[in-house]
Amino acid sequence: MADPYLFCVSHLPPIHILPEYLVIDILEYLEPAPTVNFQEVEREFHLLSHPSHEWLVNSWNGVPFHDRNEIEFYSEVLFSMVPSTSESEMIEYLTRLLGHPHVHSFEQSDEILDKISNLIAKYCGSAVSGGSFRNFLLSNNDASIKVPIQIKELGIANDNIGWKTWGASYPFSQKVIRNNTLFEDIASHPENVHRILELGSGTGLAGVSIVKKMLLDEVNNWTLHLTDLPEIVENLEENIKLNKADIKDKVFVRPLDWKDPSDFKKETQNVKFDFVVVCDCLYSPEHPKLVANTIDEFLSGNGLLYLEIPLREKYEEERNTLWNLLEEKNFEKILEQKDEGFDDYGETDYVFQCYKRK
């Protein structure tokens, strides 16, 4: 008998004889392992539906189904397809399903074809497919409060690194939810409206976490401006809406070009900000100067700057240049913490820093 954990999609019955309900069940079993906070989590096992089980028992005699009838066994076999099938085989099978006339004849063909397309996107990767969703789960220190966030990514295309969620935004977002001191001035000074600006917001994880923190703390005396290049802003805005963080007159999503911030200054009436947030901002030799100048332009005299930067060896020179430029502009580092985290490339070390003007 074949090992059920070596059962792959090529062992499934021919597509042209599959009933609609079994195709729906098969697609559920082909869901890849989800990721939360950049880490893969276990797939959730479930039993096969009774109609699908009965059809396989009565109408299909393929290995390893030829001498066992238990629904649990059938379910385990189908559940084993994902780890037993290569990505290329999976994509090839799903593509055949997508184009097969039999599948197009189903009553729920539109929903089924959408499901197949989404699975192909997940196995191809967002950079190829044009979009995917990433899940995050933030919590307070004792995990009594959990904050789920879902982020739509468009992948990296045409050098648009802002279409992808980079690792530094996660430890910063977790810090926002857990650390009551980052924005404590907002609660302690209710008579003032506190303005928060994020530079290079990307897909919006850090920005959404700030909004969630304000809602958890039930404070209303704040505004948040999330900014990035014009081509990044549309997806950023989608993620703000997706997470119900689009609060009227409080959350603003706007283009801000570090090379020429004049349009943003005009839109915001040249205001200064009480907090400036920057996560993972150094990807070219020109960035340190641009980032330092933009921070200096928009941070108020008594404001706080929050930086969360990955300690990538490749960008050590850019990090040091940014820190030197901040010192030249009379910024004083008042806090530094090392953070551990993950990104798509594995474990990564980060540094969190807080600055104020001297």
UniProtKB/TrEMBL annotation:
Signal peptide: none annotated. The keyword Methyltransferase applies. GO terms for biological process: methylation. The keyword Methyltransferase applies. GO terms for cellular component: cytosol. InterPro entries: Methyltransf_16, SAM-dependent_MTases_sf. SUPFAM superfamilies: S-adenosyl-L-methionine-dependent methyltransferases (SSF53335). Keywords: Methyltransferase, Transferase. GO terms for molecular function: S-adenosylmethionine-dependent methyltransferase activity. PANTHER family: HEPATOCELLULAR CARCINOMA-ASSOCIATED ANTIGEN, PROTEIN-LYSINE N-METHYLTRANSFERASE EFM2. This is Protein-lysine N-methyltransferase EFM2.
